[in-house]
Design a protein that fits this description.
Elements lengths: L15 H4 L8 H4 L7 H7 L8 E6 L2 E8 L3 E2 L4 E2 L5 H4 L8 H5 L10 H6 L9 H4 L4 H4 L10 E2 L17
Parallel strand pairs: 2-5
Antiparallel strand pairs: 1-2, 3-4
The chain binds iron/sulfur cluster (SF4) (2 copies).
Length: about 170
């Protein structure tokens, strides 16, 4: 199926996710373990950086990120264009669950909120749960927004696209 068959609904507003948090316990991420989070709390933890959607190579037991991205990532918003159907449409798309977070070698970026909390580290000051704004991940420069990226559809030589960004 062609990529163009999927688009993020124009009405979708990423800010909506963090606008009303009255249904979750304040600072739940400091009070509960990852295993204790509700589905809503789990989803709120994702900062929307998009970096888990970069293609990676495993070389000598280490994960090397590339600046090539899954064809279904919208690089303007850093959101998946097919979020609800991603696992059925993309063979190597992974659900972010506890197993994925603890997998070695680590394939999620070091800034990923799930990784940070699992390592008993605090959420960073730019995290949307702290700022109340989805856009703060982009303003801080931690997301994929405004980086030099290449759609995987245009790439065959992934090994020539390895990047060593500090926040991976
Ligand atoms: S790397 Fe982590 S925080 Fe960033 S988009 Fe992926 S799951 Fe969300
Ligand atoms: S299909 Fe998976 S890897 Fe691709 S953009 Fe969506 S969430 Fe990311």
């Amino acid at each position: 199926m062609e990529d163009t068959n999927y688009i993020i609904e124009e009405a979708y507003d990423p800010e909506e996710r963090f606008r009303d948090l009255s249904d979750v316990e304040p600072k739940f991420w400091e009070k509960k373990s990852l295993e204790e989070l509700s589905k809503r709390e789990w989803e709120l933890l994702c900062d929307g950086c998009g970096k888990c959607c970069l293609n990676k190579l495993e070389i000598k037991g280490r994960i090397c990120f590339t600046n090539t991205y899954c064809r279904f990532l919208d690089t303007k918003s850093c959101l998946c264009k097919i979020y609800d159907n991603r696992l059925e449409k993309v063979n190597d798309c992974r659900d972010i669950d506890i197993k994925a977070i603890r997998e070695k070698p680590r394939w999620l970026p070091k800034t990923c909120a799930y990784v940070l909390l699992d390592e008993k580290k605090p959420l960073p000051s730019w995290h949307p749960l702290i700022t109340g704004k989805a856009s703060s991940v982009h303003k801080s420069g931690v997301s994929l927004k405004n980086r030099e990226l290449i759609n995987e559809a245009e790439v065959t030589d992934y090994e020539n696209h390895i990047v060593k960004w500090e926040d991976l």
